[in-house]
Give the backbone structure.
Amino acid sequence: MPVLYVVACGGRPAADLPDFVASAQQDGWVVCVVATPDGLKFLDAGVLEAQTGYPVRSRYKEPDEPDVLPPADAFVVAPATFNTVNKLVAGISDTLALGLLNEGIGLGRPVIVVPTPNVGLSNHPAFKTSLRTLRGWGVMVLFDPASVPPLDSDTTTPPPPFPWPATLDALRALPR
């Protein structure tokens, strides 16, 4: 069975990963979850470990430690933060999540990125350039500027729903 790495960055939608993981598993994927350090703040690692049978990884292993995850055949980055998107384009691997994504892109593995910036960050020139670059590399970017949440300080407007259904559709469209 193919192996999917779900990379979770620091954002509220990371709390919804169990449902997405269950859907991917029903579609025949072996799922492993990798989180950025801030991503760990938003997800329940114990629930995801029980669900996947693999530890949620967030740091590089020690040189003498064995790999505990099988190699990835595909990646979904959801939610993808402004920081992770821009670092990925720059080739920065200062977290395990970025290192694995950079390797995956270099190996030609399918990568789906679902950014979740607020309106201010979504309009930043570096972010717009990063999205174009990722798409040029063959990365599938699921980003609808019309659904960008308000600024973090705006608590009167609820954020739009995260595009989990579209993310699952994109995953289902990947060749296996």
Summary: The chain has a mean pLDDT of 94. The helical segments are 17-26, 45-52, 82-90, 96-106, 119-122, 125-136, 164-172. The chain has one domain: 3-172.
